Amino acid sequence: MTTPFIAKALASTALLISLGTAQAAVIFKDAQLQALQEGGKYAELEQLAQARLKTNAADAEASAALTLALTFADAADPKRLEAGARQAKLCTDQHPMVAVCHLATAQNLSMQMLGMGMARAMRSVGSLKDVWIRTLELEPSSFTARVQLARLLLTVPGIMGGSVSKARELEAAVRSSQPDTARIIRVFIAAEAKNWGEMESELLAIKAGKDAALQDEVREATMLLALNYLKDGKDLAKARGLYEGLQREQPNKAGGFYGMGRVHAAQGQTDEAIRSLERARILSGAEDYPIDHRLGDAYLAKGDKAQAKAAYERFLANKRANPANAEDARKSLAKLG
């Protein structure tokens, strides 16, 4: 019974910190650290953090920055993730009252959970929740901690600490002081209730502007809503509109182009699907979506078996490929011989 819930929980934590997404919301007081982290320049962030720690081993921000650099520079490398976990523990042990250390710990744990077996992931949900709670206690204004905690509470079952009412409390606490934070939480509350009309209304009212953290959450929510319309061809026009909005507002992100590729594929527009998916492959956040799987399907529909095979093989080489997509890709690849 719990397996679907855990799978859903892990899908939720994928939002938190893919390259160039939720980790961009970590707010460093040091502008240089923040700029490198927002830009996904993890090699440079690691070098700077290590240099600062050599000068001052008690530099909490540098310690948290090193945690993030180790976590995200190559999230598919378990040794790097383990090193990030060790650094996270060092950060929280040395600076138990500094929120950014706990936030970095939550991000590292979230990435570890995506690669865990089901049983271990189940045992880790409570730990993740506790770290987000501690982060929020230390920094009540933290957008990332509040939104990620709310999403986790909405996702996991009550037996594992989930609670819609607690998520609503998190929203109500900042309704006046942080209206956009409250609104994006309401978006996900509506999504959990499958109240798609309310979700869309709340989502369209958000003006993310240049706020990278809010942009990330808006993109996640838009992709979720559009997928609902895309499923079984329920409302391709609405899905298209949402993806087109993402392309306009976030032209350097892969999400809108990936989604549009799926719409084109559903409409039998194979060449357009391939163009959109190929564009998505080279944009920021491409690793968050099964682009090569969909490309393989599109090339196969076009009759280009060589390109289809190459795309499927690229997808299956990804250690973090979604198991369901990977199974489909293997079947398609096997048929190609």
Automatic annotation (TrEMBL):
Signal sequence residues: 1-24
Pfam families associated with the record: TPR_8
Keyword RNA-binding carried by entry: no
Highest taxon of the lineage: Bacteria
Keywords: Signal
InterPro entries: TPR-like_helical_dom_sf (IPR011990), TPR_rpt (IPR019734)
Name listed for the protein in its UniProt record: Tetratricopeptide repeat protein
Organism whose genome encodes this protein: Paucibacter sediminis
